[in-house]
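Practice problem: predict the structure.
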Amino acid sequence: MDKNETPDDGFSEDPSDPFEQLSDFFKVMGSSEFSGISKINPSDYARQLAMSIASEGKPETNVDPIVRMEYEPLARVAQLQVENHTGLLINHGRPLVIEPLNRSLWAEKSISSLEPLLSQMTDSLQEGMPDPEILKENLPSEDLLGLPEGAMEAFIEIFSALAPQMSSITTGTMVGRLAARNLGSYDLPIPRSEENLLLIDPNIVGFGKDWTLPIEGLRLWMCLHESLHQALFGVPHVSDAISELLTRHASSFESDSAALEQQLNEMGVSPNIEDLLSIGENLDPSFILGAVRSADQEELLPYLEALIAVVIGYVDYFMDEIGTGLVPNYSMITEALRRRRVETSESDRFVEKVLGLNLTQEQVDRGAAFVSGVIQWGGANDLSRLWEDKRFLPTPNEVENSRLWLARTELLDT
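Answer:
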């Protein structure tokens, strides 16, 4: 099979909703295809599922070689401008490579960067899942529950296969969903392992057409935006601090079977195999998040959100500094892209929440206020001190009052 062709995985032809994918998985688990899917290597399955969702079940063509060539000078311009304005090096000063990809190839290449983080979340939830054999011994009889003969055995079999595949389903679904919407690597400000910047050119072109934006300016804008993140996350202690918070959040989910059972009762799900296999269609994602969020997550979220807000504010500031005189129609492109960032669908917002991100307008304004406060009460040069040392990373209280951060960093310098 050509790697750009969509694999036939038995899933819905309309995978725009990640929870529809989960419902389809339950249905497949209950079908004759169950035994074959349960034997697929989890990493391979995650990759196949991500590519399938990204391409929406349709064949994709590769990005035109001419378009690839057009990105080469844009990469050089972006690297030069970002390094000159911020003082940060991209890839330790090595030439920046920007890869324009189609959706499925972006998903395939992104699995390796995002899988460790997403797997942490699934693993933490699986810790609370009962052993299938113990489940079989302790469940009431089928007669008592009113189930048809063989239904309980089928459910246990489905449950047994679901556990080891849950990580690949979660990873594949979320990465595929990101590929269907994202424009590049850093729509979500998450440090990544690739040195090359991965842009989804079909999504960029489609967004440009929707908003009647000049494609040349839009591509340059994207190169600058992605390069600023690449430079910032190239600072080891910055990348480490954000990655640690994201990993701690992902690994701190807790199973709350009582809360989920209550929701099932409220939904009126009856104890028959058809209803059990269709629950993925009805579960409310927001409710699930509330049911499994832990006290540890609630404690660390302010620190993660504060740091992400500052990253957004910093990138937006330098986008304006660099792009205003460089990118054609910069104001129009910026308005469209920043509106897109905060006007997110519920399924996309769910991905953000699962990862511990909160990319709302309030967060954007919070980061912008902090950066403008640093410049007002200190100076533009003080922005570079944000990333000089791990000790200089702002706390949640300091993000609310930039003068507190300026005062503390001055004391650290003495």
